[in-house]
Design a protein that fits this description.
The chain has one domain. Helix content is 0%, strand content 67%. It has no helices and eight strands.
Length: 104
């Protein structure tokens, strides 16, 4: 059984016991979070597609860790204007372990 779930604007495939790396969810490590924005639910026999969400379906996950991604360097340059800028960015992520998927 798996579910397509929307978390902070992104769509992820969640399977029981699987790990998801999503944009930062403001929770501490070990906290349990629930998402009711399930777009699709599939088990062995059938598929349920939401309009836009499946009514009564939830994905329950535990926060494993909070981490930061690789550093991305952005360079800006305009020729003949003496304009040069360098800017760095590190995206923050949360790793979730899916505990349970409940259907309607």
């Amino acid at each position: 059984m798996y579910a397509m779930v929307e978390i902070k604007g992104g769509q992820y495939r969640a399977e029981k016991g699987g790990l998801l790396t999503v944009q930062r969810v403001p929770s501490e490590e070990g906290d349990v979070v629930e998402f009711d924005t399930v777009l699709l639910l599939r088990d062995d026999a059938n598929v349920v597609v939401g309009e836009p969400y499946v009514a009564g379906a939830k994905v329950k996950a535990v926060v494993q860790e909070q981490l930061r991604g690789e550093k991305v360097i952005v360079h800006k340059y305009k020729r003949r204007k003496r304009y040069r800028r360098t800017h760095g960015h590190r995206q923050q992520y949360t790793v979730l372990r899916v505990e349970e998927i409940t259907g309607s």
